[in-house]
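Question (not urgent): is this output format expected?
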Amino acid sequence: MHDVLAHRISLVSMHAGALAYRDDLSREQIRKEATIIQGTSMQALTELRQILGVLRSTPVGEPQDAVEAPQPTFTDIGDLVEEACAAGLPASLTVEVPSGLQPPVAVGRHAYRMVQEALTNVRKHAPGARTQVVLRGEPGSGLHLEVANEPVPVWHSPSASLGGAGLGLVGLTERATIVGGALTHGTDADGGYRVSADLPWPQEDS
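Got this back:
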């Protein structure tokens, strides 16, 4: 629930902030921002209903995965980065994996959620900071995932950032552990922040 809703709400906050703090937007730009806010809010409500539906319909003791809605995949990570850019975060994506190959479904799904949460954290704590998302790996070597943002721009107003309880980083660590991987996070020497994870990608049987 935290993964999905925090992501959507942070997007709404970013676009609402543009309307609140920028007085140079044209009527068309204002309409575009308002439309994005409306669409993102509706997505959040839809996803919340799906989550509540899972909680209501899952019998006690039955894994929730059995009744979950379709889950995101590794190839959907590009959409996350595009979404972040549309919300005003200067983000880029580098993918270095063998052409036509993807990590196992579970690993790809968790990688998506980890990038989603990491980008949400950047929007909350370092809005406007240039961010790089790197995905690198191959069968037998594992998947390396990295989301690194530069320091908060000097023109950024601290009052515009969103607070947090640290649940996102806890969730990131749990996701890495679930699939047998490991995660590290912390401040870089230049004041930026980096989240790195190494996830398993077994060698395919020949």
